[in-house]
What does this fold into?
Amino acid sequence: MSHVFLYALVGTGLFTLGLYALIVHTHLLRKILAINVMGSGVFLVLVALAARARGAAPDPVPHAMVITGIVVAVSATALALALMVRVRAETGRAELSEERPE
Amino acid sequence: MNWDGWLPLLIVLSSLSVGLVIFFLPEERVATRTTLNLTGAVLKLVLVGVIIWGVVHRHHYETRLPLLPGLDLVLRADAESVLFVTLSSGLWLVTTVYAIGYLEGSPHRSRFFGFFSLCVAATVGVALAGNLITFLLFYELLTLATYPLIVHRGTDAAHQAGRAYLTYTIAGGALLLVGTVWLYGIAGSLEFSYRGFVAELADGHRAALIAIFALLIAGLAVKAALVPFHSWLPQAMVAPAPVSALLHAVAVVKAGAFGIVRVVYDVYGIEFAAGLGVTLPLATVAAVTIIYGSMRALFQDDLKRRLAFSTVSQVSYIVLGIALTGPIATIGGLVHLVHQGVMKITLFFCAGNLAETLGIHKVSEMNGVGRRMPWTMAAFTIGAFGMIGAPPLAGFISKWYLGLGALDAGQGWVIFILAGSSLLNAGYFLPILYAAWFKAPPDTWPAERSFGRRETAWALLAPPVVTALLTLALGLLASAPFSPLQWARSITTLEYAP
Amino acid sequence: MAAIPWGVMAILLPLAGAMACFLSPRRASPLGLITALGVVACAAGLGWQVAEQGAQRYAIGGWGAPLGIDLYADGLSLLMLMVTAVVGLGISVYSSGYFNREKAVNFWPLWMFLWSALNALFLSADIFNLYVTLELLGLAAVALVALAGGADALTGAMRYLLVSLLGSLAYLLGVALLYHSFGCLDIALLAERMEPSPAVMAAMGLMSAGLLLKTALFPLHFWLPPAHASAPAPVSALLSALVVKASFYILLRLWLDVFPVTAAGLGQLLGLLGAAAVLWGGLQALRQTRLKMLIAYSTVAQLGYLFLAFPLGSNVAWQGALYLLLSHALAKAAMFMAAGNILCFGGHDRIADLDRVAQRLPLSLAAFGLAGVSIMGLPPSGGFIAKWLLLEAAMRSGQWWWVIILILGGLLAAAYVFKVIGYAFTQAVMTHEARAVPATMEWAALVLALVAILLGLVAPWPLALMEIGLPFGGEAAG
It folds into this structure.
């Protein structure tokens, strides 16, 4: 059971790391990558938690969830990258402007 | 559901539907708009006539529609609502005629008359409301419908007045809402009934009931312009004269005063409220307002402002009458609800005529105006003497019953208030009358418009003359059957335990 | 009639509509309108079905829980679906006049996708399916914000996308923990098997945080005003009216069915944040100089009200929050549309200069005003009913401090609504060229506002619908 726990812990670690990167980095590409790292962390947790008793076949449902999740992540990343390109073309920088229009 | 179950709703709809149609009329369709306005007003009056006849013959008129689980939208004709609904629909007809004459040729009339009709629909709803939540609903609708009328002219002063009006009334409405919800939480019902419905809650909820009373009355006092919530009313004077008439006599201020009647009599019950110790503070506030309003009126040169402060003072007679615990004072308060409306609307019509015809806005410009506009000033004179309380006019009846009622209730101090106020009334009205009738007119008026041989347009002249005659009739025929006085008497017998 | 799976059709029809609009861009607008009418019919059919036969459950492909995907329609989902249908139809009619041909080609497929995602979300019966629909919804919404083009809209969309993904991932991690604990995803099964444990608490924290971020509860609201204000008017309308409500709906479902009720402290926290949102959003709205920003901050404030039900927790409080959700959806959509008309007419939305346009658009201004009545919570309007229910719940539970918040929020709303309306009555002379606004756009806004008002007069009916399937746990009413 301990290696499962280890995977789950690593997954949570990746999630936290990605969250940190998402907040501190200003460049949009880094933010998008950070989101992807977070996603991988969640998927790792899902896969790890799918393990049942030693020797038994793992639970297929989380795997299905991970596959769906990856599909979603790919499309989200594509949209994000496309938007980033547009933002850069429009403002000259691939960053979110600091002065918020409030 | 039979006819009796729809009549109260029809009365509200008769002006609501007219208002909605008028909104969509193009500006230049004057004849259609006038016809619609007058048809709505006359129809409403006829329906009110039917209701009076029915109530006398013990018909039960009640429209009940579900609003929330456990709470209904109730429109009902009981003794009080008939009194108020008759007043507002009668005066509305007159005001409509006046407004048509007054606004001839001015812009945005469809908008004006649309909101004008909504305003009266809301007032009639306030009058017919059979429980506190229905009352609240129409009371807030009145706030919303009146605002566009106050800012109608679009000047900076109008906007300022509109803001002041909203600030006061929306905050007042919020207090009323809190009080209503709280009361519902405790009592589980909000239905108005003679002698109130909260008396059985006295054990254990005494403090809460006092707090709720304060919240409800404070919310209503804003519209009734009790001190210290009165200052929106003089500011609202920038609105066109028919709107002032509506504010002061027909709708807004009256809705506040009528709400206080409802809370004191049909929610708490006068005897229970007196036992709770909440009526004497209310009477005191009213007394302070009476004197304060009159004092301020004394020093206003602007005619409409003077009249506005006079309203602040006069409406508190109603509150004073109903807060003194005794049947005779109650009669005085209730009958003044009608009398004040008729007298004050006369005065505002006349002030509007002076402004429209001669451009007179200030008391100091009124020298000799009686010779130029004798009919208008005659009506004004009757209204003013009525306000002072001179017999045999309507105001005398009110003051007579208030005075007797105060003695009957053992509140002798009120006599001094009444006497002092009457002196002050004379102090701010008699100089106007003197100047108008006995001083020499100036060579030119500030802004004179010619109406041929008549002193002003007939639509402007007829309404004040009619209401002035009504002032006279209400005084002379006070003891006739179906007079407001007799009606107030019969309400009183219902509200005091036999 | 009775056997037709109206709920499934409500998901598939907009999906097919999206495809059709995409494949036939020249006819996107009429195709979209026809689809919108069809979806309204589906919602009505489902409504009839649920009212007649009670809550409906569809097993897609016949698999059934726990393995397959189930759809479930009770009173709560039905009302969400119906308000989406009404607002959606309004937005569709409005959009057919709003967009030029070039923009319409992109708008219609995205909007139909979004509608499909919304309907699927409201009908999902398991927490993973909710995640998928939430993501579909987020992606479509972001693309729609970006549709306006320009730096503001693009950065707004980008920020919205990042926030949305972050929220979804937090939610998904919670899903993983819940599945690990109970071995199922179906909400009803989870509710049966629920037992408090540290893993459940962690899941609850993660999912709530993710959903709160997406619902823009103060202080996580920072992304909402720029995104909602910079989008095209119909998009602003559907974001504020519908999209933020979707994540709130999931939170409500989880809170009512899945999470253990021991979390009273968290309820108070949500209530406090809601209160802060009501006040902060109201004050910020009052400070804005642009109409659309004002409306966007008003959304922040109104979302705060929804969370006042959590510390109260009674049946009446949930009904109040839900009623607020319904009336706000209608009123806010109408408000954004009216603002769109004003913007389209005068070319700007500076509040101080509105006097030059507002008088010329009486219908739009009426729509704004009527919607404002509901937002302020004055009678007669859906907003008033909602406020009354919340006030009643607060009074009955003895938590009177929420009463103060509700009243202050209403006063602030009155202040910012009348700040705008006041300018309508200035008699300024028009000094510049104005563009005509199509009548459909004016009427779409007005009709939605009127429905928001009407909700104040027909309350017993939606309130009875809400109770079907006992989403609030069958506690006796009142």
Q: What stands out?
A: Strands of chain B lie at 62-68, 71-76. The two ends of chain B are 34 Å apart (CA to CA).
